[in-house]
Amino acid sequence: LTDRHREAGLATALAASLIPYQLAVEMNALLEQGLRPHVRIQPSLSTAQVPWEALRVDEGERFVTNADVSVLPPATVRNAPERRRTAWNPDGPVVAVLDPKIPGAGRDLGSVLGDVPDDAPLVTALGERRTPAGRPARRDDLDRDVLEPLLADAARFLYVGHVTTSKHGLDARLHLSCGPATTGRAAVVNGHRPLTAADLLLGHRPGPAAPWRMPNRVALIACESGGEVRFAEPVGLVAAAVHTGASYVTATRWTLPTDEGLRHFAPGATASTTVLPEAILAVNTAHDADDPVATLNAWQRDKAARWEAAGRLEDSPAIWAAFATAFA
């Protein structure tokens, strides 16, 4: 996905294989009327990591060029009778967990952002709505017992860090600053207890089920945070967020490269190459908008046009096509 010509061939082949002819005809008819369709995708196991927004439907045009694209959660999730729905409060607090320190972490769970100064664009954009107050990133005090009550009263949740998957979606793991003294459904690993999708759905404390309450909008910017669709029972972190209150959940389809990783391994990268902060800021902006799907798609559309025009590494679909928003 970092070679423009090879990526174009792949995206063209995927479009030819995956976009039904009748859908293409209907979309063209809408476009001729000046209407922009919103296409809802419900991925299967075999299409879990397809970057639908990036499919090349014509010379220089991607699927997202002429349509808005979102993920449709399974009916068993979005229509569950016990599903909570948190109202949208555009002025409410944003719980921001940015690159938290993980107890006992090795290099595989190390920093994804590096230094984040107080005047970084993301920190400035969050402003006084950011909670908890204090140091914006690399904190060691944000565990599940701190996070749960904050989310119950928040408008948004912005998480940037690490997610790992296991043998089933309910064991998808969000990594916070949770030490061994915390309670939950995952075992302690190297002095750290991960927070699982099951913890969100059922509660992380012993005793009767006590589901968390998620805000209206949730962004999980981490490696394959939306990877639950690879499982036969697609109930992971995204489904858990939808079930417990969220209407919009932005997650990733695959492992996100960090800036440090790109600088070391990507052809054409330099010591100043940076991609992740821009993507995080784009997701943050989208989640403050009236229509998060359309706003994030607009950013992806701009990145696609820049990639088609110049093929810069910073505009590669490896980053912008990784993001998908589930809307329920």
TrEMBL record:
InterPro entries per the UniProt record, alphabetical: CHAT_dom
Domain CHAT span(s) in chain numbering: 11-324
Domain of life, source organism: Bacteria
Protein name as it appears in the record: CHAT domain-containing protein
Organism: Glycomyces artemisiae
